[in-house]
Amino acid sequence: MKLASAPQDRSAGRILAVASGKGGVGKTTCSIGMAHAFSGLGERVLLVDGDLGMANIDVQLGLQPTSDITSVLNGRVNLKDAVTPALGGAGENGGFDVISGRSGSGALANLSGPGLTKLASGVAALSLSYDRAVLDLAAGADRATIRLALTADDVVVVINDEPTSLTDAYAFVKTLRLHDDGAAPLVVVNNAPDSKTAREAFAAFRKTCEAFLSFTPTLAGIIRRDANVPAAIRQQTCVAKRAPACDAAKDMRGIAGSLARGKEAA
């Protein structure tokens, strides 16, 4: 799925992009949770806030970064110097490094041309210093989001059982495959009230993709609805840090474990 400008040696630094068709489905929470889970599996992890319109990873984790993506694009710092450690940083079990966006700012939402290429290439290059990079994309399918998604080795689309989530996720997959007809994003059903509802939502999404895109998506996993998730957001921490034995944390670890095994089998 990577563009030609991205480094091709992926023996290290596999990039996982986390996308969604619409906002409010828990994409950023999933990105944070999977970064924590991959770290718990012994990987050195970089989490990049690729939401160029409304970045908020730093807010969700209670970070106060001295530099962010805006500083990089303005030429004030290099991308590697914009790293902020979270939960102890990439050297700690459960910790990871973060490159923040600019919280609550839409200044980068229309980033294009050389700036977008610089960011995508920089993320691909920096990821080689880690075992894995998790790239939290903006909701939707605008040009910048698709360009960053194409930098990734794997893409996960987060949906829930709302009809608008399914239709907007379909639009993202359609746009992505227009740029790369071999793109095969995985699907995570988040905030699921029960397994039956989650599987019905995925089945509806799969049916639409098969009918109109001749593409059969794969279900990467289901994350159960869990009161610990909003509580962790209010406390500005990762849900697995707040309640490691809760349902959502277990589900995120399961998804990360499956993805990691897939990497090893490749």
What does this entry look like structurally?
The protein is of the alpha/beta class and about 270 residues long. The protein has a single domain, classed as P-loop containing nucleotide triphosphate hydrolases (Rossmann fold). Helices cover about 40% and strands about 15% of the residues. Helix 1 packs across helix 10 (about 245-265) and helix 6 (about 165-180) packs parallel to helix 7 (about 195-215).
Give a brief rundown of this model:
The protein is an alpha/beta fold and 266 residues long. The protein is built from 10 helices and 8 strands. Helix 7 (195-213) links the parallel strand 7 and strand 8 (218-224).
Mean pLDDT: 90
How many beta-strand elements?
8
CATH architecture classification: 3-Layer(aba) Sandwich
Distance between the termini: 15 Å
Query: At the first level of CATH, what is the class?
Result: Alpha Beta
Main β-sheet description: 8 strands, mixed
Order of helices and strands: EHEHHEEHEHEHEHEHHH
Give me the CATH fold name. Rossmann fold
Q: How would you summarize the topology of this molecule?
A:
Layout: E1 14-19, H1 27-40, E2 45-50, H2 57-61, H3 69-73, E3 83-86, E4 96-99, H4 113-126, E5 132-137, H5 143-149, E6 154-159, H6 163-179, E7 186-192, H7 195-213, E8 218-224, H8 228-234, H9 239-242, H10 247-265
Helix pairs in contact: 1-10, 6-7
